Every structure is written in structure tokens, then in C-alpha cells.
Fold this protein.
Amino acid sequence: MIDLTFITGKITHDDLSPLNNIDPSYQIESLKEDLLQVEYPASMLLDVGWYPSFNITGCFQIRVIKEYDWDTPLFSSQANTVQSLIEEMIIAQKIIN
């Protein structure tokens, strides 16, 4: 399992934590666009997904969204491993806070 205890917002959707902290290629059948969504004050969201879904050539995408403006994220990054995903999520939370 992926430990999300560092998350400071309200988790509203979580298909990320049940994943294993291993190479994503070993769990590609679980990697989809909607993995994690976290709400924060001031209409801020942390959104994590795998793009393209179920595709070994994809990657995690991490976005910070303000006021549901999906076309203009405040922060956007990518990660290819679970460890780098967690690092990018920590950076995203710093931007939110």
C-alpha cells in the first residue's frame, strides 16, 4: 500500500493508496486516470492520475487545480515511480499551503 498520511487535505477519492509501492509496470491493470483527489480550503484540489490509463508507456500526472479551472492548473508535473510521485505530491501540497 501507498502511505498517504502526509496528505493534509480531505481525501474525496482514493484508488491510489491500495496500490503497491513497487514499479508501476507490475500493477498496470490498476493505473487509471482517476487515482486520487484531495480537497483543500479556497477551492483548491490535488489531483493524481495515470495517463494514458492502463498503458505501460504512461506516467503519473499530478495537478493542483484552483476553483475547478482544469484548463489552467496552478501546478502540473509527472512521475514515473511511486517514490517520485510522492515527492511531487509533497511539492504540490506546498504550493497549495
Notes: The mean pLDDT is 95. Residues 9 and 96 are 10 Å apart (CA to CA).
